[in-house]
Design goal:
Length: 262
């Protein structure tokens, strides 16, 4: 099931998406069916629905926090000259960095090198702590697509990640949450102005989704709607104002955002 959040002619709603399409190029065949309250639990329909083309997709969830895992693909760690860490290397992105499909990624004047990182994102479904890898699936609502936008020059200058990863608009999420998906071997593809830049598979992750949840939930309580960014494959690169970046994860859809100067 694909759960989305939309702006419709009279407000904002969580919806279930019906029909075939990737959420970026071909939304005219899709219908958005409103659900009561929120996407956690069995959806109850209100009976209102809209052709998706008459609405605007928003970030599918508003997380209390975004936890990101760095250097989780060996080929990406190598391209930046980093070793693969023995344990997941985690950092936080603020909730205010989240934007939805089609919203602009804003290049701040303080950075000369803003890069895309296409990633599979996990959306947590219930409050949890100390979750074992074996039980990780039970706390997952579903999966969406993320772009872990990074001011690489500021990240390098600071050693730690907060400034380079946290600007407003640096966490595009969408187009929706796919609730039925096996995350173990999916293609992750990033295109910049329709040119292929990243082409990886989640089977190349150093730490699996289940291990990431075990590791992170041993540190902090995860809340419904919290998002885990699971790392990016090789091929990261710079984005310039005027370009358009798309991230596609197999089985979920395509997240497309224009790039603008702030
Ligand atoms: Mg990343």
């Amino acid at each position: 099931m694909r759960m989305a959040r939309i702006a419709h002619p009279s407000g904002v709603a969580f919806v279930v998406i019906d029909g075939e399409g990737d959420g970026s190029h071909d939304i005219d065949n899709l219908v958005a069916k409103e659900i009561v309250d929120h996407p956690f639990g069995t959806p109850e329909y209100t009976g209102r629905e809209w052709p998706l083309g008459q609405t605007r997709l928003l970030a599918p969830i508003l997380p209390s926090k975004v936890v990101a895992v760095g250097r989780n693909y060996a080929d990406h760690a190598a391209e930046l000259g980093n070793a693969v860490p023995d344990e997941p290397l985690i950092f936080l992105k603020p909730s205010t960095s989240v934007i939805g499909p089609g919203a602009p990624i804003l290049i701040p004047p303080s950075s000369q090198r803003v890069e895309f990182e296409g990633e599979l994102a996990v959306v947590i479904g219930r409050p949890c702590r100390d979750v074992s890898a074996e039980n990780a699936k039970s706390v997952i609502l579903g999966y969406t697509v993320a772009n872990d936008v990074t001011a690489r020059d500021l990240q390098r200058a600071d050693v730690q990640f907060t400034r380079g990863k946290s600007f407003d608009s640096f966490c595009p999420l969408g187009p929706w949450i796919e609730t039925e998906l096996d995350p173990s071997d999916l293609s992750v593809v990033t295109e910049l102005d329709e040119e292929l830049m990243q082409d990886g598979r989640t089977s190349d992750m150093v730490h699996t989704v289940a291990h990431q949840i075990e590791f992170i939930s041993a540190i902090m309580t995860l809340l419904p709607g919290d998002v885990i960014l699971t790392g990016t494959p090789a091929g990261v690169g710079r984005m310039l104002a005027g370009q358009t970046v798309s991230v596609t994860v197999e089985g979920i859809g395509t997240l497309t955002n224009p790039v603008q100067a702030r």
